[in-house]
Amino acid sequence: MPTSDQKIYLASKSPRRRELLRQIDVNFELLLLREQAPRGPDVTEHVLPGEHAADYVARVTREKAICAQNMMLARKLVPRPILAADTTVVIDDRILGKPANLTEAVDMLTALSGRPHQVLTSVAVQHGEQTWQITQSSEVVFNALSAQTINAYCATPEPYDKAGAYGIQGIAASFIQYIAGSYTGIMGLPLFETAQLLQQAGLRIL
Known about the structure:
Blueprint: E1 7-10, H1 15-23, E2 27-30, H2 53-74, E3 82-91, E4 94-96, H3 102-112, E5 116-127, E6 130-142, H4 147-154, E7 176-180, H5 183-187, H6 191-200
Parallel strand pairs: 1-2, 1-3
Antiparallel strand pairs: 3-4, 3-5, 5-6, 6-7
């Protein structure tokens, strides 16, 4: 189903995802899911018992896309493709989401210090009754971090809205010895894969 006005809805509050979509000249309008409401968030990000990281991040992304589509229909908005994404960090099969506080941020960064970990970002595009989705995986290796460095980093605002308690595009870039995969995927939206999905949904990229 082609999209008539070459515009999408972005179901994400992430400023990094907005920046990345602008980088490839995708025109979007925000369609934000509720994180706090009398009935709770529109999509919870709890890990199900026994759920593997790749299954978890893909499921949460699908739920976000479907919820945003239902919101679009309920509000009688102009029908457009909807893009949703979710990123998680994984080490030793442990899923690291966004830290809720200083203690969690310090714990996550201590676990990542001096070791490789995986960053999984799943992207879904929902348009009409069709869903296009891919999950991209990258490996990141941190240098060994001293307690002083971890505490100084956690004293900044940077860790608290990011999976794994760090952002590759910020101060934490100085921690990273090596990456294999997609830099933009580690940021939160792998642009190569995202462009492929949007084109499948009828959007022109260039």
